[in-house]
Every structure is written in structure tokens, then in C-alpha cells.
Amino acid sequence: MSSEAPGQPTGDPVHAFFRDALLIGGEATRLYLIRHAQSEGNTGEDLTTGDPDLTSVGRTQAERLGKRRKDARLDALYASPLRRTQATAFAIADVTGLEVVPKADLREVTLGQPDFDIRQLPIAERQKIERKILADGTWDAFPGSEGSAAARKRVQGVLDEIIAAHPGQRVATVVHAAFIQTYVSMVLGLDRDFVYYPFNASICSVRAHEGRRVIWRLNDVSHLADMPAGWAGIS
After folding, report:
1. How far is CA 156 from the centre of its chain?
2. What domain count does the chain have?
3. Which run of H or of E encompasses 84?
4. How many CA atoms lie within 13 A of 193 on its CB side?
5. 3-class DSSP state for residue 40?
6. Range of the domain at 56
7. Which residues have CB under 8 Å from 95's CB, separation 6+?
């Protein structure tokens, strides 16, 4: 006969604690931060427009994302309004039947100006800026950037809005590398804005409930597992 008092939970209390601490259960919103598939900007084919399209590799990656989400419940689909995120999102929409909802504040963190791209600077000047970026670890170190405080405010604001609109649901947002890096750093309570590199077409999973946020998964590219080496990476 159990010695537990009536109404008290049974089982391992440590297990019960972690279920609560890590938001295990049906009440939390599942938020999926999906980086767009490979774009012509990632490969260096288009460094001028600011809004490059997907490469042929990127279109294949996007199709793989769609096939993966087809087998998993998804209640809503949002995306940055840029071409690379819209194309990736529509590949998911094609198989899920969901509407792609564009949101301007899901755009990439601004790391420069249209007429200033550090990738096109002379090597010595670029290396000087890169050393400062490495030392500071924030978007403030990028000349002409949006800035860390402004980026964090925008990223948190738009994602809080989406989470509030979908309590207990599964929601995908197709966004950008620096956007994801910013949010992950905030959830982890870090001052640095970038602590890892989100692969193209990767999934970062976050659970959210009553102001709490827990990271469940980073850089999930299992849907690209049988593709040639490098297809999920920087190139």
C-alpha cells in the first residue's frame, strides 16, 4: 500500500521536477526556428542585392524540410518576407497546406549597410574588423549594424507575439542565422549575440510557457543526413 498522502504525485520527484523545468508536456508552445535553405548569398553568387534567392541545393534542402514537416503536426507557419525565407517556407506550405504568414520583424539582423559589405573590403581591413567582432561577440561590433539591443528587442518582441497567439500549439518560423543566434543567446541568458552557427535548413526547437523559454534542439539537420557533405553547412 502506498504511503503517499492523498493527492500527492507518485514516482521519482527529481523526474517530476525536470518535467516541469524543461516544459515536458502538452501545455507549452513548440516553436521551431528554421533557418532558410542555402541562398546565393551563402555561396557568394549574389552579394549585391541584399535579397538573394535560393540555389539549386537550397531548393532541394527546402523540399527536404517540407517532407519532414509533413509527417509532424504543425499549426501555423510564419516567415521573414525575404525571398530566401519565403521560398523555404512555401516548400513547407506545399506539403502541409498551411498559409505562409509574412512578418517584417522576422527579418535578418542588419549587420551593415547596402553600400558597405565587410566581405568586399581589403583583407587587412576586414581582418581588423573581424578581430573586433571576435573579441566583442555582439552585433555592435559590426560597422553600421542594427545593434545588439535593438536586435534583441525586435527578435524577442515578434516571437513573444507569435507564441502568445498560439498557446500549446506547434509553430514554425522560417528566419535567418543571426536572428536565430540572437534568440538562442537570449534564452540562454548570454551577453554574446552569437555562440554557434545555424546551418542552412536547420531546425532550432524551443518550448515556451508563461514567460519561460527552454531550448530543446539546436542545428537539427537530420532531414539532410544522406545529402553530400557540406550541404547543410556554410557553403
Report:
1. 12
2. 1
3. helix 83-96
4. 26
5. helix
6. 26-224
7. 66, 67, 69, 70
Beta bridge partners of 203: 34, 220
CA atoms within 13 A on the CB side of 2: 8
What are the helix (H) ranges across the chain? Answer: 13-21, 40-43, 56-70, 83-96, 123-136, 148-165, 177-187
Q: How many CB atoms lie within 10 A of CB 114?
A: 10
DSSP label of 178: H
In a domain, 9, yes or no: no
Q: Distance (Å, rounded) from C-alpha 38 to C-alpha 9?
A: 48
The helix/strand/coil state of 100 is strand
DSSP state of 11: S
Residue 228 pairs with which residues in a beta bridge? none
Percent of the chain with pLDDT over 90: 64
Tens digit of each residue's pLDDT (9 = 90 or more) over 184-229: 999 999 999 999 999 999 999 999 999 999 999 999 999 998 887 6
Q: What is the CATH number of the domain that holds 172?
A: 3.40.50.1240
Query: Residue 129 has which C-alpha cell?
Result: 574588423
Q: pTM higher than 0.85, yes or no?
A: yes
How many Å apart are CA 16 and CA 10, to the nearest integer?
Answer: 9
Cα separation, 26 vs 42, whole angstroms: 37
Query: Could you tell me if 201 and 61 are in contact, meaning their C-beta atoms sit under 8 angstroms apart?
Result: yes
